[in-house]
Amino acid sequence: MARSAAKVSEAQPVWRTQIVACNLCGSTNSVELYPSTLDTELPLGELCACTSSAYGLCEAIVQCQNCGLVFQNPQPVPEDLHAAYEQVVDSLYDEEREGRIHTFGRSLKELELFAPKGRLLDIGSHLGFFVEVALKNGWRAEGIEPSAWASGTARNRGIPIRQGTIENFHCDVPYDAVTLWDVVEHLTDPAGTLDTICHLLKPGGLLALSTMDVEAPIARLMGRSWPWYMQMHLFYFSRQSLRLLVERAGFEVLEIRRHKRIVRFTYLVSRLERRLGRWYPMLNRLVDALGIGPRLVTVDLGDIVTLYARKPELRALASNGAHP
Ligand SMILES: [Zn+2]
Description:
Layout: E1 6-8, E2 17-18, E3 30-34, H1 44-48, E4 61-64, E5 70-72, E6 75-76, H2 78-86, E7 88-90, H3 91-95, H4 97-111, E8 119-123, H5 129-136, E9 140-145, H6 148-156, E10 161-163, E11 175-181, H7 190-200, E12 201-212, H8 217-222, E13 235-236, H9 239-248, E14 252-258, E15 261-264, H10 265-270, H11 273-276, H12 280-290, E16 296-299, E17 304-310, H13 314-320
Parallel strand pairs: 8-9, 8-11, 9-10, 11-12
Antiparallel strand pairs: 1-7, 2-6, 3-4, 4-5, 5-13, 12-17, 14-17, 15-16
Helix pairs in contact: 4-5
Bound molecules: zinc ion (ZN).
């Protein structure tokens, strides 16, 4: 954990867990794909941080026998998870600002293919980098983020990020676009949250989200060694289950495409710390000696996707009998 600056700022909350039903179809009929690997004690803040390197550590991974959704079970009790996210301090995330700003710039350009500029809400904004990029590009953007440290730091930098979650969020004017970058897999009730988001959007408004694809070739090849099996990732969508989730909330899916991200070479190497073990310091020194650490590289292993979906226009909503 030498590279990780994530920590809990105050006394750690107790993290209770509970067995949950499938979030997509409500079935309790599931089979275990992989047993629990939680044999080490890590601070909760480390497990919840955006830059956590606690790869492979999680409760049992199960698959719903009715709809095929893959998820972690048991899962944290929602209020305990929220308390943990409120306390996350993750300064390593800030160190990777340059790569994230590039990634978000690319994501925004993509999003603009589907929606004209207008009011935008980013959910799970952390330090507000995406909101910052959107504001600079002419959007009326704001964000919401549970971490007191992250939302406070963003506000101190002049970026409008409210502390909280979507469950206690109220807006008077609906949005033209809502974004969730690497957020939906962390939620305790993704179906409920997407339903709420549909209400926050104008008819014709755009939803954009990114998440891992559990059925990507590399995920299938690696099996239990796929690094995204982590305690903070509660749900592992495939393109099919993601589409189903979004359509059930009332959206029309426009496109699901591979997501590229840009990171510093140093950061990419740091993500391998746990896997490389004693070889990690040697590789780190080599990267330093070659002077390639600050170089930005594009990463796309095909296991992260971006989904774009639209809330139907009023006429379509009326004919379907859905909510406006
Ligand atoms: Zn199911």
